[in-house]
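hey so i finally got around to running the thing on that chain from the lab meeting. sorry it took forever, my laptop kept dying and i had to restart like 3 times. anyway pasting the input first so we r on the same page abt which one it is
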Amino acid sequence: MANGDTRSPELIRAQIEETRRELAVGVNDLRGKVKELTDWRGQLVRNKKSALIGAAVAGFVIGGGVVATISLITGRR
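ok and heres what got predicted. didnt touch it at all, straight out
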């Protein structure tokens, strides 16, 4: 055997199969995590209060910016 490898072909095959099983489990776990992280609807449901507060703050800031811009353009205060 090359490079002093004393493992039998059967042992090598068994190790390859075990590695394949471990990879399959790892890939399935990763798929589940990716699905969970990319589920924006689920994230929104779980964080509804924070999302509503964020939307309200964004609307307030954007609305205030629009009003300020218009008042600068028209010269009214």
